[in-house]
Design goal:
Length: about 270
């Protein structure tokens, strides 16, 4: 009886264990499932980041609208560097204006580029995955108040929307009433630096494209339109417009909007990612 019980026990043990082949099959199936799920998770994360980014831009646009309403439609001045009165520069331009309306911190950071650039690229430029940083700017500026206090953000501002910057019959208006059509005028956008004044060009003579769409290794003299031609959300960026609306815009269509009065619209020829 003892002998038969021992044989029965060994048979049950053999039936309950995995063979090496079965184990390899299970591991292979798990690896296959993970490989199928990872892209789905990545796409879901990217979609969530893009949604938060659009919400940020909407809040930024609301703060800008509140400022212009409280100042009888007057656009704010462009003031970047004022070392003799750093508090004025710190508060006067768009980051200071938005901060006055409690729009700062994470609200001016896209989740896809929320960390400041960890090295000095072109005096603080960010890139597709990093926010720009005032750490490498001069003291007494919009981006850097002093050695210990500086800003970083994932967005940039259309500098044509400053007082006398580019709207109106002569391109020098200081009031919001001349910013038309407001639903087509970019206000804020994903960018590697705090602001930009893109040059125009034409379909026959387009502006030079950036060397890459990652925002990497741009020289100090890089054209300002390169600052927003980054593939941060697919092959496009999120843009907030002067009427308060926000939407995703393909990079090739960024020049199909009204950046200033008399803007010549055309599609941009751009490199691959």
């Amino acid at each position: 009886m003892s002998f038969h019980r021992s044989r029965l026990s060994r048979r049950r043990t053999r039936r309950g264990a995995f063979t090496l082949t079965e184990l390899l099959v299970v591991i292979g199936l798990i690896a296959l499932l993970v490989s199928l799920l990872l892209p789905v998770v990545a796409r879901a994360r990217a979609a969530a980041n893009a949604t938060v980014c659009l919400s940020n831009l909407r809040q930024m646009g609301t703060a800008w609208t509140m400022y212009t309403a409280e100042n009888r439609g007057r656009l704010f001045e462009y003031l970047w560097h004022l070392p003799q009165a750093p508090d004025i520069a710190w508060q006067a331009y768009w980051p200071g204006v938005l901060e006055h309306y409690k729009v700062h911190g994470d609200t001016i950071l896209c989740p896809s580029a929320s960390d400041p650039i960890p090295f000095n690229q072109n005096n603080g430029y960010g890139n597709v995955a990093y926010a720009w940083s005032g750490k490498y700017q001069s003291q007494g500026s919009v981006a850097r108040f002093n050695a210990a206090t500086y800003r970083h953000s994932s967005y940039g501002f259309n500098r044509y929307l400053t007082a006398g910057g580019g709207f109106g019959m002569d391109g020098r208006t200081s009031t919001l009433a001349s910013v038309r059509p407001s639903a087509d005028v970019p206000l804020f956008a994903d960018a590697v630096f705090a602001d930009f004044r893109p040059v125009n060009g034409s379909a026959a003579a387009p502006v030079p494209p950036p060397p890459n769409l990652r925002g990497e290794n741009f020289p100090v003299t890089a054209p300002e339109h390169w600052r927003f031609l980054i593939a941060r959300h697919g092959r496009g960026v999120n843009v907030g417009f002067a009427d308060g609306s926000t939407r995703w815009v393909p990079l090739e269509e960024m020049y199909m909007h009204t950046w200033k009065a008399g803007w010549n619209k055309y599609r941009l020829p751009l490199p691959k990612l």
